[in-house]
Design brief:
Layout lengths: L1 H19 L2 H28 L3 H6 L12 H7 L4 H29 L8 H13 L4 H10 L17 H12 L3 H9 L4 H9 L4 H17 L4 H4 L7 H17 L8 H31 L7
Helix pairs in contact: 2-14, 4-14, 5-8, 5-11, 5-13, 6-8, 11-14, 13-14
């Protein structure tokens, strides 16, 4: 009896695995694994290099795991008097800028998603123009200077307060918001401002999380405009890092900084910018996926 049961059970297991693991799924998983490795390995390589002694780094061209361990480069960064202020500006810019970006984008998207709004289509069209046409860098700088925003902290936030791309994502999502809920609140005497903050906002957390992650990542990584819109005292960490890279490259070409271990030092600087994103993004990933899939709201 035991042998018969065992023989009858084996085909069941094999049939189960044949149904679950098909050649097509194996190919898909292998392709995803290769893409994952190609995408993730550069981040881990930077982290490996930042905690690896420089002589160990030079000992072989490719490192799959850290060869040794040191925090010397991170300690050197923390002793730099300019970098703590730069990181503080980056954190402050990311927090304040992301908050304003999300609030303004949600308010604009909700207002222009109301079909009864007068001139709503014309106002929506104005957001479409910057997606395809740009006046250029010089007119952009002249506009910033004319508004007296240069060399101020808010020049890092206000010019990009609402992204046209994320505005249309938000508007498309809110167009599918159940109209019955808004009409019921209006019948009860609620105004549009009350409806937005007490009804629409609390029930749109996946969309809000998506906007927060995308805007926050943009603020944290931006360095180009910061370098010529504000003075060095207001540079965020990315601009300070870029300036440090250029300075060390010049010194290295002159033969004056060969003893500084530039690759490991810059890897540690990059790691200090990458680590916060790697920590925060996985926590909000499920909200990002849900928020991007617009039109998912049902009655």
């Amino acid at each position: 009896m035991m042998g018969t049961k065992a023989l009858s059970f084996k085909p069941t297991i094999s049939q189960f695995w044949r149904r679950r693991i098909t050649p097509g799924k194996v190919i898909i998983y292998l392709v995803l694994l290769v893409v994952f490795f190609i995408t993730v390995y550069p981040f881990f390589y930077v982290l490996f290099l930042s905690v690896m002694p420089y002589d160990r780094f030079l000992s072989q061209p490719i490192h799959w795991i850290p060869n040794g361990f040191t925090l010397f480069y991170f300690k050197t960064i923390l002793t730099d008097p300019q970098l703590p202020r730069a990181y503080g500006i980056s954190v402050l810019r990311t927090v304040i800028g992301t908050t304003l970006n999300v609030v303004c984008t949600m308010m604009a998207g909700y207002a222009l998603s109301r079909r009864k709004l007068k001139y709503g289509r014309i106002l929506t069209f104005f957001f479409l123009v910057p997606m395809y046409f740009s006046a250029g860098l010089i007119p952009y700088y002249l506009t910033i200077r004319a508004t007296h925003l240069t060399n101020t902290f808010f020049v890092l936030i206000l010019p990009g307060l609402v992204s046209s791309w994320w505005f249309y994502i938000t508007r498309a999502s809110l167009l599918n918001y159940p109209e019955e809920i808004i009409e019921a609140a209006s019948i009860d005497g609620a105004g549009q401002f009350y409806i937005f903050w007490r009804i629409v906002w609390p029930t749109s957390m996946p969309l809000i999380a998506t906007l927060a992650v995308m805007y926050g990542t943009g603020h944290w990584n931006e360095y180009f405009f910061s370098r010529f819109l504000v003075e060095k005292t207001l540079w965020p960490a990315t601009a300070q890092l870029y300036n440090l890279m250029q300075t060390r490259q010049v010194l290295q070409n002159l033969g004056a900084a060969l003893h500084i271990d530039p690759q490991s030092y810059l890897a540690a600087l990059a790691a200090m910018l990458i680590i916060p994103v790697l920590v925060v993004y996985p926590l909000l990933q499920r909200y990002v996926v849900a928020g991007i899939m617009v039109g998912g709201l049902k009655e």
